What we know:
Elements: E1 6-9, H1 16-31, E2 36-38, H2 45-59, E3 66-69, E4 85-89, H3 103-116, E5 121-124, H4 127-136, E6 146-148, H5 155-158, H6 168-176, E7 178-183, H7 192-200, E8 206-211, H8 216-225, E9 231-234, H9 239-248, E10 251-253, H10 263-270, E11 275-276, H11 297-303, H12 317-325
Parallel strand pairs: 1-2, 1-3, 3-4, 4-5, 5-6, 7-8, 7-10, 8-9, 10-11
Helix pairs in contact: 1-12, 7-8
Amino acid sequence: MDREKVFIYPSLGDSYSMNRYFDGVVSGLKENRISYEVVRPMGSGLKAKYVDYPLISWRKRKSKGKHLVISERYGYLVPFIHSDTIVVCHDLHTLYKEAKTPKVHQLLYRFFLRLMWRAKKVVCVSNHTKSDLLKFKPKFSAHQNLEVVHNGIEQFWTDKARVETGDRTLMDLFKSKKILLSVGTDAWYKNNQWSLKLLADLPQEFHLLRIGSFNDLNEALIKYLDIQPRITRVENLSDLDLKFCYQNATAFLFPSITEGFGWPALEATLCGCPVISNGNGATAEIGISTLIKLSEAKAMLLSSMYQTQLLLTFNLWSKQINELLE
């Protein structure tokens, strides 16, 4: 029997994680030969998000099939969409006191969550995210269909074959230094200041490869610690080059205070790279059985007595898409 068509309502903008989630959903639909249609307005900005998006969603409300809203931040679309709506909730970091989110933005975000309640199904990407949702919005404990479906992973990351890079900077760097790898945004919960302090406390042979940028506070900390020459920054690496980094790094630094899911830690482990993390948030859910605690990181790095083990609790997108749509 043919599966129902899926209408996907993606996030607007250039969020790497949201775009990756969207790409994963699409790949899972294709692998399962499920028909889909992407519903989104042209352009970006406030008008596209809050005027054009509701209008185009309203026009699709009579279209038979499942209507998948990629992010809880677009929960405001639910009243405009077909009754068979699924909304994916990624994290509640906006409501953490440590985030220092302006009050007006918190109120708007809570409004989105209140409208998300109307969805036929709400999917949290981790048990940690579900716990946060129930903490900040206890009403969801009575929702008719609240489930946890972990993010999927691409087949590319599960392939154990060694890869090579054509990037001369990366090749030279890995030949001459012991590389500590840091990947992702520099949001408050990433705790990247810990990584910088660790680097300053290690011998000169250790070098930090930062895939992404640092915020102003961490740039000031780098200057204060006098470690600027020991940091290389790169951005917009291809998956192939990123995998090369994972496969050749001495360790992957993931000191996050909280995580909605934690793709980089899973990628690093699949590539055989030891992960330094306390397992906060959802990090402990994604299949890593051996994490190097932050308090043990320096001693372990200096002794080189560490190894990575993996419990196969993750799934490819081809399977996760079925759980998402059930």
